[in-house]
Design goal:
Layout (H helix, E strand, L loop, with lengths): L11 H24 L2 E8 H13 L7 E3 L1 H15 L3 E12 L6 H7 L4 E8 L5 E2 L1 H14 L5 E5 L6 H9 L3 E7 L9 H6 L2 E5 L1 H4 L3 E3 L15 H27 L8 H15 L7 H18 L1
Parallel strand pairs: 1-3, 1-6, 3-4, 6-7, 7-8
Antiparallel strand pairs: 2-9, 4-5
């Protein structure tokens, strides 16, 4: 430190007093920091949970084949976090899912009404694939970490696209803990994501089993009745296409057309299930009728293009 010629240098006693005051201020700051509770939040990719838990417990990723007790599972996640982050308080649970036009389904509305839970919706494309969910997770993780709203984040997911969300949160000092569901076969979380997080935890079959209930299989078979005709099935396919187009719009149709004559798996499955409902008959094992069903579906779409 520079001093004017006329200003005497501080004595050792004065320096000691200054150091003592500085130390006292630091002690007060540390005491205030100690009083501030740590806070954690749980970020759940619902698409990952449905696929991984459904496959593990019910043997299928198809949501229509099982029921998920989301309320019970969320409570289980909260309890687990309470154990792991013993000296921390829960900010909230974020539940990320997809929906047509981002309009809540009845199930999503029920989840949104749960205490300490916020539902965030991405979109669903024509193939029932979630769009925009990863970016929602990144935005929330980064924002909460930047504003020091959380010290720890439990992330339930597995997509490699979440790596950037983890990096963003860690850049602001938050710790990110990756939670996953035991894979029925192989691995259901991307390795780069596993490498990036601060810790990992896997929930096994016994943990998940109480929250997954397989739905009964309906075959729509009637003893002694002949199968429907090809024309009848083709007409049903066209009717379903009309409804499908009204709900999803021209953009969704444009995504399908380049794949003609093949339908993406989720769309084909939806078509089959709806046709069986309308006909009150199973089309399983009737390859010719299923082709007629697809033909009717495609003919209507192409007539509108």
């Amino acid at each position: 430190m520079n001093h004017d010629a006329d200003t005497p240098a501080p004595t050792l006693t004065e320096l000691g007093a200054r150091l003592e005051r500085t130390n006292e201020l630091l002690q007060r700051m540390l005491a205030e920091v100690a009083k501030t509770p740590s806070t954690h939040a749980i970020f759940v990719d619902a698409g990952y949970v449905h696929a991984a838990a459904g496959l593990l417990v019910a043997g299928t990723e198809d949501r229509r084949s099982f029921d998920l007790d989301a309320e019970g599972l969320i409570e289980a996640f909260i309890d687990k976090a309470r154990t792991i982050f013993a000296d921390s308080r829960l900010l909230r649970v974020y539940w990320y899912d997809g929906a047509r036009r981002r309009i809540h389904t009845a199930e999503q509305q029920a989840i949104a009404e749960l205490p300490d839970v916020k539902v965030r919706l991405g979109n669903l494309n024509a193939n029932n694939q979630q769009k925009g969910v990863d970016s929602l997770i990144r935005t929330d993780l980064e924002s909460l970490a930047r504003h020091r709203a959380i010290s720890d984040a439990a992330l339930v997911g597995g997509d490699e696209d979440l790596v950037s969300a983890v990096e963003a949160a860690q850049g602001f000092g938050a710790r990110v803990h990756l939670w996953g569901i035991e894979a029925a076969d192989g691995r259901n979380q991307a390795e780069p994501l596993l490498w990036e997080v601060d810790s990992t935890r896997t929930f096994d079959l016994d943990f998940c089993r109480p929250y997954i209930t397989r739905r009964p299989v309906t075959t729509y078979e009637s003893e002694g009745e002949p199968p429907p005709s090809r024309d009848e099935v083709r007409f049903v396919g066209a009717r379903i296409a009309e409804t499908w187009l009204a709900e999803r719009g021209q953009a969704a149709m444009a995504e399908l057309l380049p794949g003609h004559p093949y339908l993406p798996g989720p769309v084909d499955q939806d078509l089959l299930i709806e046709a069986e409902r309308v006909l009150s008959r199973s089309l399983r094992g009737h390859a010719v009728l299923r082709r007629s069903l697809r033909d009717g579906f495609w003919q209507h779409l192409q007539s509108r293009f």
